[in-house]
Amino acid sequence: MSHDSHHKKENFIQKYIFSVDHKIIGLQYGITSLLFLLFGFSLMLIMRWQLAYPETPVPLIGSLLGETGILLPEIYNSLGAMHGTIMIFLGVVPLAVGAFGNYIVPLQIGAPDMAFPKLNAASYWSFFVGGVIMLASFFTPEGAARSGWTSYPPLSIFESGQTIWLLGMVFLITSSLLGSINFIVTIVQLRAPGLSWFRLPFFVWAQFVTSFLLVLAFPPLEAAAVLQLMDRVAGTSFFLPSGLVYAGSVVDVSGSGSPLLWQHLFWFLAHPEVYVLILPAMGIVGEILANNTRKPLWGYKSMVYAAVFLGFMSFIVWAHHMFLTGMGTTMSAFFQTTTMIISIPSVVILTAFFISLWGGSIRFNTPMLFALSFLPMFGIGGLTGLPLGIGASDIHLHDTYYVIGHFHYVVAPGTIFALFAGIYYWFPKVTGRKMSEALGKLHFWPSLVFMNGIFMPMFIQGLAGVSRRLYDGGQIYAHAQGVLEWNEFMSISAFCLAAAQIPFILNVLMSLFNGQKVDRNPWGATTVEWSAPSPPLPHVNFEEPLEIYRGPYEYSVPGENKDFLPQTVK
Amino acid sequence: MQVPYVVDERPDTGLINSKLAIWIFLASEVMLFGGLFSAYVFLRMAAPEGDFAYWGSKLSIPMATINTLVLITSSVTVVLSWASLKLKDFEKYKLYMGLTLLCASIFLVIKYFEYTGKFHHEIYPSSSTFMGIYFTLTGLHGLHIIGGMIVMGYMWLPMGSKLWDTDPDHFTNRVETAGLYWHFVDLVWIFLFPILYLL
Amino acid sequence: MSGNNQADIQEHIKVYLTIFGALAVLTILTVMASYLDVSSSEAIFLALTIATIKASLVAGYFMHLITEKQTIVWILILTFFFFLVLMLLPLITATDQTGV
To answer: Do A220 and C100 touch (CB under 8 A)?
Structure first.
């Protein structure tokens, strides 16, 4: 480990590029992932133009799409597959876990850094390489992957761009594995004296469970990716059945493979992955709710048990993504049951959040607005998942826009709003300055409105039977005619949502230089990160050794003259 | 303040950081090979009756048995190399670690002959799903062997072993960590051998 | 395992060598068992049982799991459970398929 690192003078490269300081690495993850989120969002905007105004040239970038400027079906498919891939693996998870987790967890547990700082840097750079590969795929002769982020064979074995996608995934999965090992060891081993398990902020518990999900669920996908790579380049037929006809002729492979094998291995990861997407967000919301109600989180212990139970259950529900594969009634019943059971811990956590508001002295600052809106938005997302988890209704809704609406509600006005809340909340700790409240509200209100404008009509289209991944948005289908009008409405909402992000980008950039300077604890918060200077000291974080004296949410303790008691104050 | 519990155990967990880390990494490796074993089972079921047994019979049981004994030997030598360090006998450590690396090399040489033997008879991963999963499982396992050799090689050569002079406890822990990884690689082979060659 | 004295380590070494012997014997047994005339499920059961015994010896003694801390043992039990899920559930689901 670095001895006397505060004495050793680091050059620019050591200090900022290949830094092993968790805070720099967290910022690297943060900046990279926000750029990817913007890029992934832009891909969707192009798709939404085509859906609203089919076969019309795309403005501004039409020249990049070919002679006519019209989005071609193959490119549409690439945009779709890459939108999903980028948002999940290059955007949300690196931001939620890589950025927030890396920056905040060591601070909240009173540690000088993560347990393995060099490994931490390796995780970031592996992620970076994976991201470069994914981006580069757009510029290869084959183009970017276009078999959905789910990459189902047989299509994914024959379609363009998939090999490079698989290669990129190997780097991203490696990054994730190295990172999650680091998180688990850090949380177990580096908690400050006095910081027992049930004095940990809910955010740390959320990251802890998330790390277990990543470490145990990703490897089977890595295995599957290797198998799919072999099918594509080595002529194997792991996922190709015998006698498969493609492009008019029988495929020349040994056969006896199974497309379902891919689905099992893929969803074994991809289901826990959705809890990876939501848990850190719930953690952030918990911190902000407690802080801005000036009350402890109601039901903290139940939430912790719920999060752990959720993590455990997430490994045994995956085939609810496969109800329509010819699954027999026994296994269908099994997976429906486990899926219904897993809704319980989510409800526990959301209910506890709602009850935590009761009797609070609520401060409606920007982080709180985003955190509050998470509650009903995640509520809608979660509730709309129920008909998908029940086989009978899933028969009608599977692979329709209903599914897209469901998962976007959870991830977009759900997780991403929580991540915005986290940025506004922790910006002062990272920079020593507050972001503008005015610009914050200008960001929040339109975003909330337009998120709903995009995703609510998807339930309507889905219930009418409009399939997902359709280039023409359902135009050729008789059953879709009645709901086609929503396409333009949703697309305009999307363009407006894009515009609503401008105040946010301006706010971040301007506040870095002109934001109101604040002391180390501007929100009057109790958790340990607020005891450190803003920003915390390089490599060591805190000025002196810490000891923890109480739980994480000692707000409005009766008999005290302040409405909060920091964990680190005797 | 440096990162604590690198050499000294944390009192309440009784662990040093690297010990916990390597076990979590091995847990992820269990799931990685688990994914491939799960594929094996699935593919065996999807293949025509007797298909896997037919293709499996083309593998050389004697070569694999020798390889199994070679890996088991290397497992003993690596744990003896660690025990030598605990007994402060650096020369014995070098001997046993060297033997471990030798065993690993023998394993790879035998594997090389196995693979080239198959290719010579025009048997490739694409020949059947059994061969596909055979090459993938043993190939991934082989990559893990190479990875282990690189790490253990580093610890055997002065480049890595010089830590013994400045911080013997830290070095001993590193050898233990590498040894745990190596035992895992042996463990995977203990299952690969009967499943691929004997069933 | 830090803090063990010389005598303890010598005892451990004896154990390692004994286990080595057991593993070699079990390896030969596995090969011999594969030539027995039994049904395929019995063969699978036999092979996996012997492999599990060998693996337990390596894990328990070479990897010191027998004396390892609770934290690690519980993580491994959890992992093993999910490993079984990964092995069994796709298999059971596939055999429960309707006409596919």
So the answer is: no
